[in-house]
Amino acid sequence: MREPLLAHGVAAPSHVAIVPREEAMARFQEWFGRVEMVEGVMRRQTLEIVGREHCGKTWFAKKLSHMPECVASHFCRRDEPQSAESATLIRSIGEQLMRRFPNLVLPRLTTVTLLEDTPSALDHFLRLPLQTMPSPSKAVFLVLDGVEDDDTQLLIEMLLDVLPTWMRLVTLRKMNSAGENIEVLELDAEDDADFEKFIKAKLPQNSVDAVRRASEGSWFYVKQLSKAIEMGGLPSDVTLPDGVENMLSIVARCLPTPFADIVRLAKACRCRPTHKQLLAVSQMLIYRDISLIENDIRVIGQMIGMPSSQQSEVFDVPDIWLRFVGEDALRCHSAWAEHFKTKRRKTARDVCELAYHLSRSTTNPANAVKTLQSVGAGELLLRCHVIDRQTTALLKAAGARLEENNYDVVYACSVGDVSHLDAILRETKPVSMDICFGLLTAAARGNIEMCRFLTDNFPHLVASSCCGEWNSLRSAACYGQLDILHLLLEKGVDVDECGHSDRTALRAAAWSGQLAAVQLLLQTGAMVDRRDSEQRTALMAAAFMGHRDVVGVIIQYGADVNAVDKSGATALHLNLSNSSKHEDHAETTRLLLECGADCKIEDANGRVALHLAAYHGDPCIPLILEKHPAVDVPDNMGQTPLMLAASQGKLVAVQFLTETAHSDVDSIDNNGRTALQWAAINGHSPVVAYLCGIGSDEGHKDNDGAVALHYAVTHDDVALIKPLLNAQTVEAKDRYGQHPAMIASANGNLKVLQEILEVSDVVNIPDHEGRTALYLAAMAAHTDIIATLAPRVKDWSQRDADGTPLLHTLIVANLIYVADVLLSHGASTSDADTHGRTAVHVVASTNDVAAAKMLRRNGANFEDVDRGGRTALMTAVWAKHVPISAFLLDSCGVNPNRTDRQGATALSIAAQIGDRDMVNMLLKFGAEPKIKDGMGRTAMDVAIISGNDAIAALLQSANGSSGSSGIGSSVPNSPLDASKQRQRVTSSLRYNRTNIIDN
Asked: Does the keyword Repeat apply (predicted)?
């Protein structure tokens, strides 16, 4: 079912979507889509994302990291020094690569090896394993966001040298080494249209130029300021200073008093503290009630832009605030030391953290040593320097032992140094897992002497699996190490040995295309149809990767060509579903068909081989149709192969299916959609033009009442919509009553909208909820669309189904700058809703002074009354909105003594709700306390009835009399008389009180 336009085309009125970096993303896609070949091999390419500080580089990099082509990413943080350490970065990348490529075997190296022998470690940890992987037809990339230090710079350059050419690098710092294969993508917010959209979305009440000057082109500072305004810390119309330092000072002044101390404590912590930890430590420096400190931490966390303030989450301080608050290191480190010292259950890490803070605090070194000895530091065995040498020295003084000779068993196995491993074994006894993983790595590298040494000395570990999946036999098979396979099989390893995933050595060799290894394993008796946990066989693995020769050998050994996996897919299904096509692919498909692959078998989605071939535009479609000539066979969703080919923009496949195979071009699926509509949905203009050219029905409506043009206009592509444009399709309405011009307006597609308006003027036709194209464009903040539609608009009130004018809705949604644009083109500030309320009543109810200023610039009448005779001032007073009330009285000069239809004044309302500040302000601006309402009651009478005695006394003083003129002017003779008098008055006026409240 197609969702209503508002769900995916226009943000809800109460929200403004974050502006994407569309221009930067387009430049990135252009770079990534460029494939440069040198002697038939992909050329190594690197992209540097550069720009001024806080221009959104990290945000953009994180957006890139979520792309499917990104295989790994690592973001270093200034407040987490360990995140920038080479060992942390290398391990992070390695773990992600193993998750992305399940057959990748990486050695487990110790921190000492990664730190002290980084170049060699990288060579064995990444370069050798990645070189043995099949090269994909499409490039992938890594994203690295490094801190500004030379060590990280050097590490990135070393990493660049070991990556294969098909794995590109995107880095967020300028590389020192120049090269033709390094390109630069600069994020310049000064000339960035996306940045202007972001300003308008986050700070609509401020001028774009003023925000640019204040933020110095930084997205971060714009977000910080908008968060402070959103939380009420700053007024929406705050005057912006020039420069980021001045802007931060303004934001800091509205933060809780302990702000600086709390941020300094977070800064002193080596790792980002949790809210619970920070609360515990803050009590040692900030002398306030714990509930107040807890609230301060919550407010600070929210206002400086952190995602959450839950106790279990970290207090994530942006680094600019760490610099802004300055240093108070000694006091803060002392507080953290006290925290770790008094912690009940201390881990080894807690003891190290305690040593770190003690070494930087005011604690006497001798006392620091005694403190560490008391918490068991003398029992620690340090395998390398902990945190830094200063901390390690203090721990050693407290009795901790530093193991100077830390041997890396896995690394010794990886490089194949038997003598070095033998020396290690004489001095220490490694754990079984290290030997197991060492054998695994040696087998992958083809280190025959090392494998022989390990199998002779540790025969019981020969068949062991690491992490429940990999064993040495599978590792050797995956990388085609025949000598290792012979050795392991001679040592008695079962040829079908597998881990918990049930993936055998045969399956690994078949997947990686190791023909000789496959032949050896089959000759040794490997089960040809042994299935893994997904019920897939070695034939399926080889077919998916398109290894024709391997497929042929496995079939010769009697493999079941038509076996199905858990999803109902055969080897042919898997072969056709791999979109990474290469030269052997068509030959593999042909071989499977020749060997009896059944094209009629349906997978779990009801798709036969032709569906998958059409979806990927496979060149073997004619061969498949020869075996199974049913061209319009539907899948479970009712989609035919033609629909799938059209949805993916496979023009050649579409042409073949329609011209040669005579597929029904207007066949519909379960949603009532045709191939033409699917091509339009995905924006494939060549396919749309072709289908229209051969007679596809562009006026066909799907189950949602939408024609192809409804979907095409969501793309800003004139070539896409031109074949679909005619008088009927332009005016066609879907089930929501929306015509294509409305959808184009909501999506901000100006060029497409202009093309539509050349065919038919549908601007003023509303949908079922009363919204027009102008309404949807305004709610999506597309001011250029408003300007285009303006000459054609007949009714500028643009009331929705509830009778609310568009101007009102924009103000409530905080789209003030859009409302200003709307008024400049013809909207009126006097337009009223069904209750007679104009825009001035709306700003009064929302307490929006910035919007009120905008209305005043556009000539609004702030004395307008609604159907109950209420003015904007009365509305503001009822809501207890002091800022907007003060603006109306002081800047707009409204009459405080206007009365509504019941004769009530703003002062009467303030008296009833008991707002003393409001009463004082109204009296200051000339409110008359003696005015009587329709029941003869003054403001003081209302205060008495409402039980607001303090307000009544204030009004009596303002009256200059001992009593009101409405009730009981005489002074009672006794308390009893006073009680009876109050009771009598209250009873006589009780039925009138409800009317006052309704006002």
From this structure: yes
